[in-house]
Amino acid sequence: MDLRAFYQAEFAEHEAVAKATLAACEAPFRRLVAAAVAAIRGGGKLLFFGNGGSAGDAQHLATELIVRYIRDRDPIAAVALTTDTSALTAIGNDLGFEQLFARQLRALGRRGDLALAITTSGRSRNIILALEAAREMGITAAAFGGKGGGALSGLADPLLVVPSDTTARIQEMHILLGQMLCGALEQELGLA
User: Fold this and answer.
1) CB 115 within 8 A of CB 85
2) pTM of the entire structure?
3) Over 90: is that where the pLDDT of 192 sits?
4) DSSP secondary structure, 59-127, as one string
5) Helix, coil or strand: residue 135
6) Helix (H) or strand (E) holding 141
7) Which helix (H) or strand (E) segment is 23 a member of?
C-alpha cells in the first residue's frame, strides 16, 4: 500500500465533496435553520435520530444544543432518539427494529417540533417510518442524506443531500452541517 497516495487521495476526495456540498446544500440549510428556530421559539424541540455512525452524530448534535456549542448559554431543547437503551431494546424486541424511531417520536414528539433524520443511504426502514410518523403528527420532517437521497425526496423537507456515494465523505459532511446548525441556532436565537 502506498500510504502517502492513500492519504492524499482521501483528502482530495474530502475537499471535492466539501465543495460540492457547499454548492448543493446552502438553500436547504437555510430552510433547516429557519425551521429549527421556529420550533424552538414555538416551545418545541429538535429530535435527532440515525443508525450506526449517524446515531453517534445524533447524540453529538443533541448534546451540543443542550450543553453549549460555542459558549455558555441557555440550553436549546434537543433529544437524541438513539440513547435510551431500554426503549431501544424493548422496541426492537417487541415491535421490530423498523419501529425504533417512529415509536419514540409518537411518544415524545409534538406538533411544532423538528425531527432530523441522519442517514447516508436514505433507505433504512426505521428512518422512513419515523419521518412518516413525524409528518402525520405535524412535526417538521427534515433529513441529512447522501447517495442521491434514497427514499427521502418528498418525505423530508428540508432535505440536505450530500452529493457523494462514499459513506465516510457523507458522514463528514453530515457532522459539519450539524455543527453549522448548532452555531447558526445559537446566533439566530440570540444566545451566542
Assistant:
1) no
2) 0.97
3) no
4) HHHHHHHHT-SSS------EEETT--HHHHHHHHHHT-GGGHHHHHHHHH--TT-EEEEE-SSS--HHH
5) helix
6) strand 140-145
7) helix 3-41
